[in-house]
Amino acid sequence: MTPKSIVRMGDPVLRRVAEPVADATAPEIRELIADMEAALADAGGIGLAAPQIGVPSRVLIFRVPDARATDHPDDGPCPLTALVNPVLEPLGDEIALGWEGCLSIPGLRGEVPRHLRMRVTATTPDGQPFEAVVGGTRARVLQHEVDHLDGVLYLDRMTDLTRLGFTEEILEAEAERRREATS
Prior knowledge:
- By secondary structure, the protein is of the alpha+beta class.
- The protein has one domain (12-182): Peptide deformylase (Peptide Deformylase, Alpha-Beta Complex).
- 28% of the residues lie in helices and 32% in strands.
- It has four helices and eight strands, in the order αβββββββααβα.
- It has helices spanning 27-43, 136-149, 154-157, 167-182, and strands at 47-49, 59-64, 78-90, 95-102, 105-115, 117-123, 129-135, 164-166.
- The strands form two sheets. It has a five-stranded antiparallel sheet with strand order 1-2-3-6-7. Strands 4-5-8 form a three-stranded antiparallel sheet.
- InterPro entries: Peptide_deformylase (IPR023635), Peptide_deformylase_sf (IPR036821).
């Protein structure tokens, strides 16, 4: 399967509110998820929303690899998971800044405030109800992907645009800070 192209910032589909899915088990939803999985694997990301491949439906996929999991009690590695019509509810007022990139905004990263803990409810592609409490990276990636379903980009959430930059430079600066801290 040739992966579908990921649309980039400027494409109007990224600014639309995605439509709810009537039947999570429909064959076209399974096909959409397969297309999303191929696009995500090709791009090497950890999350993707249907609008990012040009489909304005409320479907997302995400995973948390070992290296990206935090020590938050509601986080941890997570296999590739597909959610249909996800809804997020913040649990508590605790917010943390964290660096985010986006496959639809290649080459840039920004520091984005996000809730540390969320409850997610959704439907699985098998039609089963899904509910979980998530924290750390799981909470961050789900908030990022649900934002895509609502026509919101991470740039819209940033509170300090001086904390936006090219990925290579940001990673280099972070590595330099770590070297200085251990010297």
